Amino acid sequence: MEAIWLYQFRLIVIGDSTVGKSCLIRRFTEGRFAQVSDPTVGVDFFSRLVEIEPGKRIKLQIWDTAGQERFRSITRAYYRNSVGGLLLFDITNRRSFQNVHDWLEEARSHVQPHSIVFLLVGHKCDLEAQRQVSRQEAEKLAGAYGMRYVETSARDAINVEHAFTELTRDIFALVRSGDITIQEGWEGVKSGFVPNVVHSSEEVTKSDRRCLC
Amino acid sequence: MAAPSLLLYSDRSLFTRRVKDSRSVEQRDPGWKLFGKVPPREGTHKDPKKIQTEYETKAGRAGPGNPTSPRQSVRKNLDFEPLSTTALILEDRPANLPAKPAEEAQKHRQQYEEMVAQAKKRELKDAQKRKKQLEDRCKLEESIGTAAQTWNQEILPNWSTMCTSRRVRDLWWQGIPPSVRGKVWSLAVGNELNITHELYNICLARAKEKWNTTAAPATEAETEDVDSSDRESSLELIKLDISRTFPQLCIFQKGGPYHDVLHSILGAYTCYRPDVGYVQGMSFIAAVLILNLDTADAFIAFANLLNKPCQMAFFRVDHSLMLTYFAAFEVFFEENLPKLFAHFKKNNLTPDIYLIDWIFTLYSKSLPLDLACRVWDVFCRDSEEFLFRTALGLLRLYQDVLTCMDFIHMAQFLTRLPDLIPAEQLFQHIAAIHMTSRNRKWSQVLQALQKDQERGSPVLKR
């Protein structure tokens, strides 16, 4: 039996090749760190339930995309049906940070008429000694694009939960406020199997919960 | 047959030792009481084995030549001993309880015999099963041996006349023996591009030159070239991907025996076809070839394989052509597996989601390596059509489980196939896929779709 969830969010994870997209997702969904993982060809799929408030579960459907430039024409087709995205760069690889802008442009131009809530993730933060991108400049860039910024490490399990739940909470807030709505033929947000009781309490708490998220 | 009986014997000796041990413990122990009132009595802890032998002597079951050692004769004749507690049913009740009526004792004897008979039957069945497994394995090894001989002595020397014969086609379908696999692949793929070993060496030398220059910091002049940064990053990517190619085999990683070979082939290819360059997925194809061919021959097969229309379309990410391939696939999907096709449609599961990985890596990443090689066997002969037929075979094999799944479970299942896939069953399912649709073959369907791209699958459309 499928666990009961309020909503299903489809998230897409993008960023240059070898910044650690698959490892981050595996840490989040499987709780382990793989020393080596296959290069992703096309797209891989993961899912996990996240409890954002006691009894309120969101099912995350995570699309892990191939990072190589050549695959962009394939992966860009997957933006449209995603409600959220983690945009990763490797803090030890300056070029992957410089490409953040391109990734955002790419996403923005292919997500129409919808929009994606992005979170900027500086990955591999356990490798502090090899850092090539400072936290300040990453935060500045994130701010310029209206994104949050989180530094994570799949190896040391730093901020992995935090990154995904923060993004989920942000999206949840937008769904509640009505900025994001469930639409026929759009896979970004789907309503889950919810008993009627929960639905009605949803309505009651709707107004006063907004700004807390 | 030697192994199973040996196994039985060791089981037995273990068993007797355990019984002995427990008895010695019992002797030291003054005995436990069930309710504290009943004193421990002689015979309460009677060894079930003893009861059994007693019974067998009484019943006259002991071997005729050796009445004093019934256990030994049991070992010889029955090849089986009942479980330790089985014989307890024969024992008389403790003295403080009413005695067993003769009728009941008779019943118990009967039950005991039935139990023993059943257990014997089961044991015999297991032994037969083990024997059959061993025979099958021997047969398989023998058939691989004879097949290798047939390929080496009969087929390969007369390749051009024999390769299309019915018999060779049948043998081919059963899987090419690993010892001749590389040779057969080379012959089947051919060398349309006329690549020589010299050309490979030239390409490799050029690649090495590039590695040396990019190792130094890039100059301003280089970055003016639009392609150079892409090419440079693709050289970088090759390095990173090599260590991620079949990591479990531990032969392509840095320091492994095939690390340099894989690096050389991929590097040489980027110099041979700079317009295609390195694309993720290629490292797996090259690795499978390296496992079956010498370096230069592996390169020749690699370049020729990638030159096939389907592979070119995918590795150059020619979108409209890829869409056409997916659309053609869907025609045969609907034709062969209408129920599953409808289920996929209902769940918005489009073929790009699973086909991209399968086609890009020619199943080498998604199927167990030995099974992938069997797919390659037929793919080298039947070309792209077989890749899509294999996909349909896989869907057919797992049709029942897939129809019970929702989108995400199907997507996960198909992008991470089970570790154990029954090879024979898969090939039976592939064989059951008809690659004709309304009297049109794969190539005709594809051509018709190519002419009318408007009818292409809506997948990936922006």
Automatic annotation (TrEMBL), chain A:
Q: Name one Pfam family in it.
A: Ras
Where it sits in the cell: the answer is:
Autolysosome membrane; Cell membrane; Cytoplasmic vesicle membrane
Main localization of the protein?
membrane
CDD domains xref list: Rab39
Keywords annotated in UniProt = Autophagy, Cell membrane, Cytoplasmic vesicle, GTP-binding, Lipoprotein, Membrane, Methylation, Nucleotide-binding, Prenylation
SMART domains associated with the record? RAB (SM00175), RAN (SM00176), RAS (SM00173), RHO (SM00174)
A GO biological process this protein is involved in? Rab protein signal transduction
Question: Topologically, how does it sit relative to the membrane?
Answer: Lipid-anchor
Q: Where do the TM regions start and end?
A: none
Look up the record and report any one GO term of the cellular component aspect. plasma membrane
Which GO terms label this protein's molecular function in UniProt?
GTP binding; GTPase activity
- Quote the SUPFAM superfamilies the UniProt record gives: P-loop containing nucleoside triphosphate hydrolases
Cross-referenced NCBIfam families: small_GTP (TIGR00231)
Record-stated family: Belongs to the small GTPase superfamily. Rab family.
Q: Mind telling me what this protein is named?
A: RAB39B, member RAS onco family
Q: Which organism is it from?
A: Myripristis murdjan (pinecone soldierfish)
UniProtKB/TrEMBL annotation, chain B:
Query: Is the keyword Disulfide bond assigned to this protein?
Result: no
Going by the UniProt record, its keywords in alphabetical order are: Coiled coil
Query: What Gene Ontology cellular-component terms does the record carry?
Result: cytoplasmic vesicle; vacuole
GO MF assignments: GTPase activator activity; small GTPase binding
Domain of life here?
A: Eukaryota
Residue ranges of the region described as Disordered: 21-76
Question: Which ranges form a coiled coil?
Answer: 102-144
An annotated GO BP = vesicle-mediated transport
Chain intervals with Basic and acidic residues compositional bias: 21-31, 39-59
Q: Which PROSITE patterns match?
A: TBC_RABGAP (PS50086)
- Sequence ranges assigned to domain Rab-GAP TBC in this UniProt record: 175-383
Question: What is this protein's gene name?
Answer: tbc1d14
Q: What is this protein called?
A: TBC1 domain family member 14 isoform X2
